[in-house]
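Bench notes, afternoon.
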Amino acid sequence: MRSFRSAIAGIAALSLVAVGCTAQDNGDANGAEPAAQTTPPNGETTEVTAEALPEDLGAALTPGIESTMSDMLIPGTVVLVRDPDTQWLEAFGTRTVGEDDPVDTGDHFRVGSNTKTMTGTVMLQLVDEGLISLDDPVADYRPDVPNGENITIRQLLDMTSGLFNYSELESFNQVLDDDPARVWEPDELVALALEEEPYFEPGDGFHYSNTNTVLAGLIVEDVTGEALEDLIQERIYDELNLGNTVFPAREDASIPDPFARGYLFGTNVSTFESPRLPDDEIAAAEAGDLLPNDVTDMNPSWGWAAGAVISTAEDLADYVEELVAGETLLPSSLQQERLDSVTPINPDDPASPGYGLALAQFGPMLGHDGSLPGYQSFMAYDPDRELTLIVLCNLQDGPEGQGGSANQIAREIMSVLYPTG
């Protein structure tokens, strides 16, 4: 469904902007320092102009954030930007549409596909422990997967397996609309996908698919004999002291206090082909006569290993910095292999979005984004500048079909953080 289907489109939009920021530029026209050579994860040398953060981040960033929120009718947003010398953390708007209920910087949001990076990290830890290999065929663990002898664990993590994405089924979206409280079992989700034809032969392309990550989560559980939720808690949240990050039990649709309520224009089915509303509904939304639907309590079990996690801006900032540049979660050699795995999803277009072992690239920044009904989020870290950007929103898409509210705000912010791009 578009809840995750649109995620790679958002990555694409951001990557095009960010790649522009890494274009060769000798600066000095804008008073910038000379461009410095860097080596991104794909090993290709590029040039990135060294920039200092604006002296007054609030004054520099607030107009673009508020303009995007207004254009997309985003109720509430939390933004964090930091480097070793500065942190700017600000909340905008309301938790609850139609009420004077200001968003707080410590509010919890569903963070969708950022969960994929966590499932991928635990899988890589099992690789380090010798319990599994990235080149193992999926059939060794799941003999029910058609052609599983030719699909590897690596291809699940880097989205090159070709397996159909269950959330792209209109029938599945209809169930989400009709029974939002339904508790989904991971095997149910995989079974839906395996009934459909794959997109391509393993390794012959790229297609962002929640099936890959749910299947990876099931394999992690099979190998360890432990629940994925417990493994992520112990191996990531406890290790990094992420006290405000939760991987909820499948039957739990609640969000810890304090939290922002989540909103969706239209329904999952009505926006299945495109998140753009009909023209008359767009006009009504802009006039305030059509409000987005409150989907806060939709059970996130349908995303599970691919998208169920809840977090806060500061927790995500601590996490993405470790995800990209740390050595706490993975040993240095395996961490470097993960970074090196990030390559353009279209080999014929070096400017296409970058993706690797459950890790996305936004020009000089690495991380992921997350999108599901009611919420959209973005987390990224630039290891060269030690620069972190987090955006959390309580609306998925704008009524005119503007995809990915947090991605669009991140795009505005990146144009300020990388002004020579």
